Each structure stands twice: as structure tokens, then as C-alpha cells.
Amino acid sequence: MRVAKRRGNGEGTIYKRQDGTWAGQVSIGYDPVTGKLKRKSFYGKTRKEVADKMAKALQEVNSGTYVEPVQTTFGEWLDKWLTGYKKGQLKPGTYENYEILINVHIKPALGKIPLAKLQAHMLQAFYNEKLEKGRADGKGGLSTRMVRYLHAIIRQALQQAVKEGLLARNVADATSPPTIKNKQMRPLTEDELLKFFETAKDDRLFAAYVLAATTGLRRGELLGLCWDCVDLEHGVITVQRQLLVLKDGLSLEETTKSKSGRRSITLTDDAIRELKAHRRRQAQEKLLMGEAYQDSGLVFCKEDGTPLDPREFTKRFQRHLERVGLPKVRLHDLRHTHASLLLARGVHPKVVQERLGHSSITMTLDLYSHLTPGLQEAAAATLNGLLGKEKSPADMQGSK
Known about the structure:
Helix 4 (120-133) runs antiparallel to helix 5 (144-163). The chain is α+β, with helices and mostly antiparallel strands. The strands form three sheets. A four-stranded antiparallel beta sheet has the order 1-2-3-4. The chain has helices spanning 47-63, 74-86, 92-110, 120-133, 144-163, 190-200, 206-215, 219-223, 269-289, 310-323, 332-344, 349-356, 361-368, 375-381, 393-398; strands at residues 2-3, 13-16, 22-30, 37-44, 230-231, 236-239, 242-246, 249-253, 263-266. Helices cover 46% and strands 11% of the residues.
């Protein structure tokens, strides 16, 4: 082996190996435990390639940004980050979502890549692939919202690696995740809603449909509503719980989606009447079930008091729609129906925002402004005749 001429002190050495490739070593500091000098080896097909790698490492050492590569894979780091930094901090439902998305989508595609070698272009290719054909069932791509969610998880995990000195920078910041495109909503018209109510009026859960359409509650909020949050005397409900579907079963969480999600909503007369009828029916069910009734305080539950499965509740709702030939919309579209009916009646968007529990009025306007045709015309009509209140500049000029 022939050793090349040494560079200046601390700048390392470069030599050609017997197989024709080049190698070099550079000092990267001292081991804090042993006090011994630490040197890092670099390899390449040419002397210049190795020299460039060494020069970059020396520059990072001098600027204090050099991070010694580790053997940990990205998948191993995700596991460590999830259990070490997120368990106990996230709500159970959110933690489970993170865990599923990491195991189903992120680790199979990126998990074997060494953490130190993960690059922005790899993440970008991952996002693009998921958009095109990322569904676990093989039926097309994931939504833009879901890919942004994957990006958020990856970015959080890499940011923690940066904080711990495992990475010099967060490569997720150099990517371009997709802009979120909201799913096309299909609210029921007023006539369609009344038609649905007519066919569903004998359902023991009819009050749940009425409440969904007249309050805009999310499905989890509706099925997580308890009687201690219902004040029928004053006609108000308080939203503070939600029912979640977890891998271990259904779970009633004491916290809602966000701070704005915890709110009080004034009920319509129809909702109050149906809730009173529902409460009487539920009392009869308790008597019939006797000790077998599992009273968890839920407003909407099975005949034995146990929670309703949200997915089965949606199917139940859609069967009523199909029975009368209405579009097979999602249960969530009753929430959109509530918002669109209010806005069409001239209710201020701030009130709609508060009833829906949106974090900002901007979200409300972005989602629903296009569902109220005629608002532009109505706005213009309010200014009709404005110049007629006084002479126009042209009239004043002609009178001189």
C-alpha cells in the first residue's frame, strides 16, 4: 500500500487502496470518555471524491455542525422516538394513529435507510408515491391530508434527532409535501334532509340524526355525548367528550379534538323535543334490561347501554338514505348540512364557527363559502342605489 503525502496538521491523510479505490482519515475531535483522538474514515472512487468529503467534514467540525454518523436506521429511530417521546404525551387515539401510520406506511418504505443517510429526495419520492398509489388496500393513492400527516410525523421525529445531535439538519424541511385538498363535501339540501327525517323517524336513534343535523356535532362527539352534558331545561349541550375507535376497542375520551372543540351549543326546539322522547325511551330500556344494563351515561348507545360502534352507526344512517333514494353521503356530511343551512339563512360565520368548534373563522369560511350561492349577488344588492343618495360627480358637472 502506498501512502500519500500528509496534509497539514489535523487535515487528515488520503491514500490509494490495493483495490484501486481511495480512502482518507480526518480528525473529528476527542472522545469525551477516553480523551483519545477520534478519526473518521472516508472512501471514494477518486482522490477528489475523498478529499471533498473530508473537506466538508472539516468545515462542519470547525463550524460546530458536524454530526458523527450512527448505524441506527430510520425505522429504529422512529420506534425509539414514538415510545420515548410521544407515549403519554399524545391522546391514546392520536398515539395509535401515529403507530399505525409508521408501521403501515413509513417503515416499509423508509425504515431500512440509515438515519444519517436519509435525504430530502428520498422523502419527496415517498410522498409522491403515496399520493399515486399509497393505499394499503391497493386501491389508489392516499389523500393530500394523509400525506401531509405522514410528513408531519416524519418531520417531528427528525427534529428530535437534530436536537439530540444525531443529525445536522432536518431534511424534511427541504421537501415539498402536497397542499391539502379537502374532500368534496355533499351536504343534503333542506328538502333532502326533511325526506331523510321522514324515513328515519321510527329509528330508536332518530334523535341522534336530528342532533347531528341541528348542531353540527362530529360523529365521535355525538356518540360520546353523555347526559351530564345535556341541559334540556335551558336547551344547551356541552361538548367535552368523544368516542374513539381504537385497536383495543371503543374508548370514551374526556378531551375533544381541540380547545375550540370544547364548546356549548344551543339546541333547536326540534332537538329538545326529540332528546326528551329519547330519554324516556332509554329509561324504558333500562327497566327491561334490569341489572344487565351497563349504564355509562351515554345519550346514544345500544339497548344494553354499551357504546355504539361509530362505523355501524354510519352504515345505519346510510341505509335510511338508500331506502328513499337519497345520495349515499357520509354521516359527516350532516355536519356540512348544518353549516350550509345556517349560512344560507344569513347566520354570521363567527356563530357557525363556534357551533362547529373550528379553531378559526378562516377555516369555516374556506370550507363553506362556496356552498351558499347568491351571497355575492346579495352583497352587491345591499349597495344598490348608493350613489342615488346624493348627486353623482357627473350630475354635479352637468348642473354647472
